[in-house]
């Protein structure tokens, strides 16, 4: 299946606000892209590393997600395990 996957990190670099993926210009660009995909029936994949962001995107009709990079997912799982083990 083809879909559009924006790169907020890459966009932030292009807009001169490196790694500020929640910067208003970056968010506006991603939202504009999402709207264009919806208008043209093109599947959109959102970067959503938190449950809150996934809920927001789902409410906007998005069904495909990148949940994070492998090292981020592993790091979160390890921290959660350590917290549980520490009791």
From TrEMBL:
<dbReference type="InterPro" id="IPR040442">
    <property type="entry name" value="Pyrv_kinase-like_dom_sf"/>
</dbReference>
<dbReference type="InterPro" id="IPR015813">
    <property type="entry name" value="Pyrv/PenolPyrv_kinase-like_dom"/>
</dbReference>
<dbReference type="InterPro" id="IPR050251">
    <property type="entry name" value="HpcH-HpaI_aldolase"/>
</dbReference>
<keyword id="KW-0456">Lyase</keyword>
<protein>
    <submittedName>
        <fullName>Aldolase/citrate lyase family protein</fullName>
    </submittedName>
</protein>
<dbReference type="GO" id="GO:0016829">
    <property type="term" value="F:lyase activity"/>
</dbReference>
